[in-house]
Amino acid sequence: MSDTAPDQLTVALLQMTVGDDPQANLPATVAMIREAAGRGADLILTPEATNMLSPDRARQAQILRPEGEDQTLAALRDEARAAGVWLLIGSLALKGDDAGDDRFVNRSFLIAPDGSIAARYDKLHMFDVRISEAETFRESAAYRPGSRAVLAQGPMPVGLTICYDLRFPQLYRALAQAGARLLTVPAAFSPTTGMAHWEVLLRARAIETGCFVLAPAQCGIHPAPHSPDRKPRRSHGHSLIVDPWGKVLADGGVTPGITMVSLDLSMVDGARSRIPSLSHDRSFDAP
Ligand SMILES: O=C(O)CNC(=O)[C@H](CS)NC(=O)CCC(=O)C(=O)O
Q1: What is the distance, to the nearest Å, from the Cα of residue 259 to the centroid of all Cα atoms in its chain?
Q2: How far is the CA of 281 from the centre of ligand 1 (A)?
């Protein structure tokens, strides 16, 4: 871990383009974690679907494993321990652990510097959306949504969210009011909605909550060699780091890579003392 002062935290967002083979995706993720740790990161974050992104649910059913048997999780826990860093695995697609429901789960993990799992969070809001004929998603057909918000005790209190959750501001407000000072939004945003909504929603969540918002993203064209008949999926990229005043501190662009910033943590109290809206909620009669 780097030698930064206690009110500083050096974060590294890893932007990647995963395909549909977890074993093939892992080496690039490991290489980026080692590079970010070598450059002094305290907290490293990967995007949604770090192990695999596939349109082929039958293939996922063959490949995906439950949490306790997942090779990506095991390998990345080893990396966090070896480097002595905090690691937010944006999400892994996993076989679910509910006997009565055979859907997968889309689960985020916060890994502590000793390699232990500090927190896990199952994506709450499912992306069941028809953007256009060519861009139609029904995430809930394949994934079982979670049912609870998670505030993790990381290097500071962290509110865990995933991708489409970004459109539900009440989740972020609840996390901030429960003590979050940093919010994570790992994503695989669609290019169409990414262009129109990604940055403004992330900045809004930061402004509303007085939190740092860290949003590591998938980018580019995702290879899916087992379904040549299908149009490949694309992701918006633009991993973003936003400060509690709503300013974009860094943007990861549209290609794979590492985006690093040293955060001045005193900015959380600074923003909240200037605009104390988090403590000004009023109850009101329903409309
Ligand atoms: O399907 C998988 O295997 C992994 N899950 C995802 O990639 C999810 C559901 S398709 N993507 C999003 O939520 C994008 C949201 C978005 O783009 C928006 O809100 O505009």
Answers
A1: 14
A2: 31
For residue 85, tell me if it sits in a domain: yes
Per the structure, the count of domains in the chain is 1
Q: In whole angstroms, give the CA distance from residue 75 to residue 26.
A: 8
Distance 104 CA to ligand 1 centre (A): 14
The pTM assigned to this predicted structure is 0.96
Range of 38's domain?
A: 8-272
Q: Which amino acid is at 284?
A: F
Q: Does residue 284 belong to any structural domain of this protein? A: no
Work out the number of other CB atoms within 10 angstroms of the CB of residue 136. Answer: 10
The CATH number covering residue 217 comes to: 3.60.110.10
Q: Which residues fall within 8 angstroms of residue 274, CB to CB, at 6 or more apart?
A: none
ipTM of predicted assembly, 2 dp: 0.91
Give the phi and the psi of residue 125 in degrees, each rounded to 5: -105, 125
For 80-121, write each residue's pLDDT tens digit: 999 999 999 999 999 998 889 999 999 999 999 999 999 999
Tokens (6 digits) for 32 = 């980026």
Helices (H) and strands (E) in the chain, counts: 8, 16
Ramachandran region of residue 68, left (φ > 0), alpha (ψ -120 to 50) or beta?
Answer: alpha
Ligand 1 interacting residues, C-beta cut-off 6 A: 48-49, 53, 93, 106, 127, 137, 139, 163-164, 167, 188-190, 193
Q: By the 8 A CB rule, do 41 and 10 touch?
A: yes
The pair of structure tokens assigned to 14 is: 């890893």
Indicate the SS3 state at residue 14. strand
Task: Examine the residue annotation and report whether 79 is marked as an active-site residue of this protein.
Answer: no
Three-state SS at 146: coil
